[in-house]
Amino acid sequence: MQPPMAQVQPGPSQVEEVEWNTALLDCFEDPGTCCYGFWCGPCLACTVSGRMKECYCLPLCDYCTTSAMALCGLPFAVPPAAYGMRVALRHKYKIKGSLLNDLCVSCCCTWCSWCQMHRELKLRNPKPTVISIQNVSTLHL
């Protein structure tokens, strides 16, 4: 009979959490995103959703939810897409925060939240630079 083998249990992984690259109200860090969010907020939200590899139309759920709540006479509704995207983005990039903070920001500063998420994605996933290289060969005689 063999003695039982000792099993090594991995300890909790300590992942260093980072801050957001820009603050919630840092519109002047990226005026283009700020203008995009101000003039066409739903389009900005759909862009963020697409960059997160989700359905582009997902943020439209927020309009349906808040409209239905308003029709029922309830003045307050949690925008599910804004909240879910914020939580997902924060977890994906290991950004400091809490579910309660995400909830408050998503409910009270929805458009600022979408702008902050857009800036974060732009800074973390810049568009690739295409470099064209031509082969030049010379014939030496």
TrEMBL record:
Pfam families referenced in this protein's UniProt entry, alphabetically: PLAC8
Superkingdom of source: Eukaryota
UniProt-listed NCBIfam families: A_thal_Cys_rich
Family (UniProt): Belongs to the cornifelin family.
Protein's name in the database: Cornifelin
Organism from which the protein derives: Neogobius melanostomus
Lineage, opening ranks: Eukaryota, Metazoa, Chordata, Craniata, Vertebrata
